[in-house]
Structure formats: structure tokens, C-alpha cells
Design goal:
It is a single chain. The protein is mostly helical. It has one domain (about 5-60). About 85% of the residues lie in helices and about 0% in strands. It is built from two helices and no strands. The longest helix is centred in the first third of the chain and has 30 residues, at about 5-30. The N and C termini lie close together (about 5 Å).
């Protein structure tokens, strides 16, 4: 597996984990109304947006390099 392929897999896994954290934190906020969970949810949502933007940037930058 090339470094490019590993990087894409790692970023995709990070997006999935942050999305899960965002959903879990928001559901916990709805149950407890604790501001801490709302802050965690917003931070995780921001991380998802940043990771997706970074992934798109990375793919555009290295489009001429093969996955092998």
C-alpha cells in the first residue's frame, strides 16, 4: 500500500470517527442539556468539515501520483 493510499484511508477513518463523535455528543446533549456535550458536538462537526476539505486538497495536489 502506498503512502498516498494509506493517507486517504486514514483521513476517511478520521472523518467517520469524528462524525460518530458528533452524533453521540449531540444525542448526549439532548438527553442531559449539558453545554459540554454541545461544545464537543460542535468541535467534532468542525473537524469533519476540516478533514473533508483537507482530503479534497490532498487528492487534488497528488492526482498525478498513482495509488500503488
Amino acid at each position: 500500500m502506498s503512502l498516498k493510499a494509506f493517507h486517504i484511508v486514514f483521513v476517511a477513518a478520521s472523518v467517520i470517527l469524528m462524525a460518530f463523535l458528533c452524533g453521540w455528543s449531540f444525542l448526549s446533549y439532548q438527553e442531559t442539556r449539558s453545554t459540554e456535550y454541545l461544545v464537543w458536538s460542535l468541535c467534532a462537526a468542525g473537524s469533519v468539515v476540516a478533514l473533508v476539505a483537507y482530503g479534497r486538497f490532498f487528492l487534488r495536489k497528488l492526482r498525478n501520483i498513482s495509488f500503488l
